[in-house]
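Students often ask why inverse folding is considered easier than folding. One informal answer: many sequences map to the same fold, so there is more than one right answer. In these notes we will look at a single instance of the problem. The structure comes first.
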């Protein structure tokens, strides 16, 4: 069972910042997860569609200028990073799971990642995921797709099949051994969010899930 650093090592450093991603890599996390919005042609790494929770700004991400967003404090003096900045910092030391958060993110992400492929990066160093399955459908087929669900659905496997998904990414409260077994039978990986406590980490291991999104990568042996 692998650890995917949820917004980096976000239990120890401000989420979705270069500090959090650097720490996750230092903790030998094989993958990190982040969230992107496309703003004025730039891909910014931030989770919420509003600014108040994670920055000293106010209002909506998509209604704020790029210059203003880049001037904000995202915690401990950290800036909201661009996706390019994160990729350059990771520098092949971990895989990057890119969650498409805002509308119209898939195509600019495709363009950026294809540029990195042309510079020697490998497609298997990246993964795309989203709750917005229509946006995820636009993701470049070269990159594995993780289909996110936050509620029980009878269409888990219909959706993953339609998207040619690599993984089923589900909330911990939805995970049952039977779901994991069926996903594996269909050739899917199962990645579970957000799993931070020792007993939950062990339970997911016992269930046979393939990976967990965790804010504390050092807790996952």
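Output (designed amino acids):
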């Amino acid at each position: 069972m692998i650890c995917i650093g949820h917004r980096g090592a976000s239990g120890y450093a401000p989420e979705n910042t270069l500090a959090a991603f650097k720490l996750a890599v230092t903790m030998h996390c094989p993958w990190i997860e982040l969230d992107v919005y496309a703003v004025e042609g730039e891909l910014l790494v931030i989770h919420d569609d509003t600014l108040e929770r994670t920055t000293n700004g106010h209002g909506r991400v998509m209604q704020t200028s790029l210059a203003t967003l880049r001037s904000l404090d995202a915690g401990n003096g950290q800036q909201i990073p661009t996706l390019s900045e994160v990729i350059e910092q990771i520098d092949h030391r971990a895989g990057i799971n890119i969650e498409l958060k805002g509308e119209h993110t898939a195509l600019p992400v495709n363009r950026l990642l294809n540029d990195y492929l042309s510079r020697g990066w490998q497609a298997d160093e990246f993964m795309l995921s989203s709750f917005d399955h229509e946006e995820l459908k636009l993701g470049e087929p070269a990159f594995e797709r993780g289909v996110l669900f936050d509620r029980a659905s009878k269409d888990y496997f219909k959706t993953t099949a339609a998207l040619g998904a690599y993984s089923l990414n589900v909330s911990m409260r939805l995970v049952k051994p039977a779901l994991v077994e069926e996903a594996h039978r269909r050739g899917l990986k199962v990645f579970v969010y957000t799993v931070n406590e020792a007993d939950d980490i062990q339970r997911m291991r016992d269930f046979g899930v393939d990976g967990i999104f965790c804010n504390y990568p050092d807790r996952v042996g």
